[in-house]
Protein 1
Amino acid sequence: MKYVSFLSDTGPGVGVVLGEHVFPVPHGYSVSADGAPLGLLELIQRGAPTSVPCATPPIALADVRLLAPIPRPARNVICVGQNYHQHSLEFDASGYNSTPSNGVPDRPVVFTKAPSSVIGPDDVIPLHDALTTELDYEAELGVIIGTGGRGIPAEEALSHVWGYTIINDVTARDVQRDHRQWFLGKSLDGSCPMGPFAVTADEVDLTDLLVETRVNGELRQSAKTGDLIFDVPTLIATISAGMTLQPGDVIATGTPAGVGIGFDPPRFLRAGDTVEVSITGLGTLTNTVGGPPGTDPGERA
Ligand code: MG
């Protein structure tokens, strides 16, 4: 099933997408006792429903504002660096990697993005031009954890996955390089576009997903998830070895070759650019890059 978190005329909600319509999940599923919307995270915590009652009339997709499937404040956004061979080579060669791996890492390179950096489809990616002149894009498959746990063996890992979404791991390259630790350059407000959908695991075949990025319509990244150096079960086993994964945690699995610093000269994002990240079966995550300094991360394109 394909879920969305959304805002409509009647407030926030969670729904199931069929065709061009959203079928809202009844409030008994999506609102806490005090009336606060809990959203998709609550559904994930309750388990992985294959069906939910949809008693209310559908809403046209065009009539809602889509939010990140797990909106801010999100759970952990755990990321993996240098997880496609060609990208690992381009990153080491770019001069922006303060901790080069000599080509291909022998263990997964794990870091995080601040959950406060999450924004939704069609939100504006702030340019932060007083801080960085080197904002870059990274298309990534996002794994949404369903059943949490610690010490999850690789052979059982996929049973802990609730579903999948798209992440754009927007990165300030100069900040990433100059501070020698990736967290800051990966966590600027608005640097984690997520969505548009959260698709349950039963509908996704991990072996052959096409991951693509277009900037202003020009194809920049294109690779299959079969090219991952460390596959999803290996990542879950590695991350959970000593750290309890929780329902709703998202693992961004790494980006393919073709990021801005992979070009000579580099091609960084500019005000007004449109970035589209597409993954087979997961839709297209579209965001524009903001113009004026101080652009609200929640501001619409
Ligand atoms: Mg990344």
Protein 2
Amino acid sequence: MKIVAAKVIVTSPGRNFVTLKITTDKGIYGVGDGTLNGREKAVVSYLEDYLIPALIGRDPHQIEDIWQFFYRGAYWRRGPVGMTALAAVDTALWDIKAKAANMPLYQLLGGRSRERIMTYTHANGRDLESTLEAVAKAKAKGYKAIRVQCGIPGIEKTYGVAKDNKNYEPADSDLPSVETWSTEKYLNFIPELFAEVRKAFGPDLHLLHDVHHRLTPIEAARLGKELEPYHLFWMEDAVAAENQDAFKLIRQHTTTPLAVGEVFNSIHDCRELIQNQLIDYIRSTIVHAGGITHLRRIADFAALFNVRTGCHGATDLSPICMGAALHFDYWVPNFGIQEHMAHSEQMDEVFPHAYRFDDGYFTPGEAPGHGVDIDEKLAAQYPYKRACLPVNRLEDGTLWHW
Ligand code: CS2
Ligand code: MG
């Protein structure tokens, strides 16, 4: 089998998505997600100017060799743009291989390790009351695990809170919008938020919270400790994780489980965190961590240290990534949980898929490949429009973590 063509499809059904489509001489094609929120065009160029020309004529079955060729052959290894482009290639190749074998991707990975895949969704509100309503709505839809984010009294606009009941979409302007942040106001409010959520929903509902990189280690230690009575499933991205050592200090002070990794793009970003058991869940995803080929390596390494997977699954990862992730989740022995921030109907029409949600769990479907496609005609109706993620400034104007 030979790769005879490959192209990038950029579409924006409510938000920008980058898709790579690889076609073979046998007529089988595969698709991969290459979306990097706020930096989409960089990945498009990396694919069109460098990876696609080197793909034509290759045997698509040689997934590993192609992965090594594009990883080691880049010289400038790692980084979100290159590893997202590589992920798009890798995912499309696994899609082709599974279709050629006429089996769902999870079978090719080793078969399923569970009956169904637990997922969590987002509940958010501008204040405590609307947040409690959002949690109740998510629970009524059957979710067993819910991420809770709330507006902070005294802060005008904060991460994770949707504008007027729409789906939360952070990439909200042509150039970065500016949000204001106060760690003090945040730290003084969040324990009260979870006390109220636990009071309203009892002890069994899995509750998650995303700090979104904003605390210092000692502040994260304080928050983790103060949240212990509410038994969170995890506290995510407590601090910016370039300094993996920072988690040693957090770990000393709290038993609240820690999750990190959605911004990681290789095993080297999380090796110390995993081998020193400084975290409980690794959030790296297929689309940003070099595809299935590399994420399997991260998951297998994590399994040696009791760390479980918790793949990122925000709306800015396309349904292709969601579909591939669910096959991965079906197989991976040390599965933790899968994030599911629902795509809109418009997005789902552009990306028809086989995966199904039922009562808080997903199954990936039995279609050959990863079970997700792209409707090119429909995709062409939604032209790209630059959209950047916000930046965050402290109340004194200091540029902070968003
Ligand atoms: C968030 C993401 O889902 C999450 O855990 O951290 O929604 C993140 O803000 C976006 O993916 C950024 O593009
Ligand atoms: Mg997150």
